[in-house]
């Protein structure tokens, strides 16, 4: 059971929200069988983005990336389920959409690296850190899915 409580942070970036892709992205995680435990539309500020992308601070692309991430609302979500961090990255596709397989979100909806539609945590540790950055404890909802017995054996 505990393997089913792994969580990941998935965000639809401003390009994905502007292009009306949010419902399709949510749908891919829902249909796979993952459980939504938090969701909100948010306009990120410099502080949040510098913490979120701490590993990229100082890189040449960083200022442009931050201004893009501040250019509109982001749909922030948390999903729960077995192996959801790794599977979430697979559902998103490769960082560069041109290297992403068709069938992935970036492979289906993106072309340029700086407009790759979505974000997903890259490890269980990053997921925990990012979830705590983007959400307050009380925004994470514990609930039992009636579908669980049809998804897990
Ligand atoms: P990830 O989003 O797949 O985890 P990261 O390497 O963590 O990829 O990079 C964070 C985001 O920064 C990417 O999703 C992409 O939008 C942007 N990015 C990464 N490298 C570059 C670059 O060289 N030029 C422009 N944007 C970049
Ligand atoms: Mg990353």
From TrEMBL:
Gene Ontology terms, MF aspect: ATP binding; nucleoside diphosphate kinase activity
Gene Ontology biological process terms from the UniProt entry: CTP biosynthetic process; GTP biosynthetic process; UTP biosynthetic process
Keyword annotations from UniProtKB, A to Z: ATP-binding, Kinase, Nucleotide-binding, Transferase
Transferase among keywords: yes
InterPro entries linked: NDK-like_dom (IPR034907), NDK-like_dom_sf (IPR036850), Nucleoside_diP_kinase (IPR001564), Nucleoside_diP_kinase_AS (IPR023005)
Enzyme class per UniProt: transferase
Record flagged with keyword ATP-binding: yes
Residues at the catalytic site: 119 (pros-phosphohistidine intermediate)
Domain Nucleoside diphosphate kinase-like: 5-142
Pfam hit, one: NDK
Annotated binding of ATP, by residue: 13, 61, 89, 95, 106, 116
Origin superkingdom: Eukaryota
HAMAP family in the record: NDP_kinase (MF_00451)
Family designation: Belongs to the NDK family.
PANTHER family in alphabetical order: NUCLEOSIDE DIPHOSPHATE KINASE
Protein name: Nucleoside diphosphate kinase
Source species taxonomy: Eukaryota, Fungi, Dikarya, Ascomycota, Saccharomycotina
GN (gene name): YNK1
């Amino acid at each position: 059971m505990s393997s089913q409580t792994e969580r990941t942070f998935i965000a639809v970036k401003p390009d994905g929200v502007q292009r009306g892709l949010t419902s399709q992205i949510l749908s891919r995680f829902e249909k796979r069988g993952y459980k939504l435990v938090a969701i909100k539309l948010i306009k990120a500020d410099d502080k949040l983005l510098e913490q979120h992308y701490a590993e990229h601070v100082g890189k040449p692309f960083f200022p442009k990336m931050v201004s893009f991430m501040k250019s509109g609302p982001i749909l922030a979500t948390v999903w729960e389920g077995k192996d959801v961090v790794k599977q979430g990255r697979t559902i998103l596709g490769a960082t560069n959409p041109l290297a992403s397989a068709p069938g992935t979100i970036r492979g289906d909806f993106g072309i340029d690296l700086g407009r790759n539609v979505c974000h997903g945590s890259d490890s269980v540790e990053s997921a925990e850190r990012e979830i705590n950055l983007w959400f307050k404890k009380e925004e994470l909802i514990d609930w039992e899915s009636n579908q669980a017995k049809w998804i897990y054996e």
